Amino acid sequence: MALLNVNELHVYYGSIHAIKGISFEVNEGEIVTLIGANGAGKSTTLNTVAGLLKPRSGDVKLNDKLLTGTPAHKIVSEGMALCPEGRRIFQQLTVRENLEMGAYTNDPTTLEDDLEKIYDLFPRLKERYKQVAGTLSGGEQQMLAMGRALMSHPKILMLDEPSMGLAPILVEQIFEIIERLNSEGATILLVEQNAQMALSVAHRGYVLETGRIIANGTGKELLHNDMVRKAYLGG
Fold this sequence. Notes:
Blueprint (H helix, E strand, L loop, with lengths): L3 E10 L2 E11 L4 E5 L6 H8 L7 E6 L2 E2 L5 H7 L1 E4 L11 H8 L8 H11 L1 H5 L10 H13 L5 E5 L7 H16 L3 E5 L3 H7 L2 E6 L2 E7 H5 L2 H7 L3
Parallel strand pairs: 3-8, 3-9, 6-7, 7-8
Antiparallel strand pairs: 1-2, 1-4, 4-5, 9-10
Helix pairs in contact: 3-6
């Protein structure tokens, strides 16, 4: 049984039909990626799954429990965390305070252990734990956003454009961290403009175009798919 099931999802912005009946699943322990051009509906899909947008129809299930219509903060308690596009860290709070915000659904007695796990994953955050988050570099802010999402002990971590705006060397670091998280048991749903990198780490992928899924397969299959190569991989 899949950990996450998305079935016949339709999402509108006013009269604009942004997501047109998409269905996909993520199995426990997988990295699954959604790729597509700007405006294809990738972020809208994640925001709907996370409860930030309400679908017109269709449903979202986590561990076979229906989440459609559940408020976003309660979806976090069910085991789903979104690391949003643009990072959305709390600029005026310190690194540590941002991480604590990610743990608001947890047992407070686990806080210090949880922080140490994040610091082990992102040593740079430990060095800067007292620093105001808005003064961090772009790469450090991305690490902080990922760490904040991980603080809630998610069953599934959703990452929306984690490499956006980062230098190539930092992109490689972020993807190494994604692979490490997965090797340690994390289930990840990844939205990423860098299709080459996303498909190279993903077990499976889905290609979105104007709100519809037009192709799916293993990461390796999609990397070698002629249509995908021409449209998203530069030939």
